[in-house]
Amino acid sequence: IYTYNSLIHGFCNLGRMEEAVKVLNEIKSEGFSLDIVLFGTIINGFCKKKEIDKAMAYFHDLIDLGLKPNKIVYNSLIGGYCREVNISKAIELFDDMKSKGIVPNNVTYCTLMHGFCKAGQIEDAKKIFKTMKETGLKLDVVSYTTIINGYCEMGQMEDARKLFDEMLSNNILPNKLTYTVLIQGYNKTGEREKASGTFNEMVERGIVPDSFTYNSFVLGFCESGKIGDVAKVFDEMSERGFELD
RNA sequence: UACGAGU
Predict the structure, then answer these.
(1) Nucleotide showing the shortest C1' distance to residue A176 CA
(2) Distance in angstroms, CA of A146 to C1' of B5?
(3) Closest nucleotide (CA of A148 to C1')?
(4) A241: pLDDT strictly greater than 90
(5) Between the CA of residue A144 and those of A2, A53, A57, A130, A199, what are the distances in Å?
(6) What is the interface pTM, i.e. ipTM, of the complex?
């Protein structure tokens, strides 16, 4: 059943849900019973494909079979609704999960914060972040990067930087996503020097930029018409063995 | 064996 699940997971990652479902049905016809992990895999697959209705159908199926939805299943579904910016449905599930005694974790909260940010509800995202601290959850790099990204999208770079510093003082190490988010934020506000400073800081910390980081960084130069700097970065990328696509 | 952040 682990093997089957891995196979289904693979199809889900490729977005090939018809085949994922086929494997799931094959398991049933071979007389195995579906477990919560298999449901979790298929539900998450449909959530990622923005087919939340199908995901919800499996959610009801598993309940009908007498299985109990767990934290992962709820997190996936909450993420599915957030992806289509249906915040009220996401919150409905969030409440439902809590009413069943399931305690939200970092993933749950980050998913919600991300959803709020996407919906432009940064204030609500901030509230979630506050709740996370109050409940004594161990914030991690994803928690911080998610909320920092919310501030960056609003162009509130002073606050973003404050949170970044707070993160450091809590001994949570930023990664390339954290830095990329900051660079994009500085691009948004037109603070080119800070974008460059952030990029340099990242490299000094020994964090290796990837194509997302470089793209964001270069975009800043493009927007200010500094084509010469773009060429410089391209050269550096080639030296680092990056294929320019 | 399934869930969260960046162009």
Answers:
(1) B6
(2) 5
(3) B5
(4) no
(5) 33, 31, 33, 12, 18
(6) 0.97
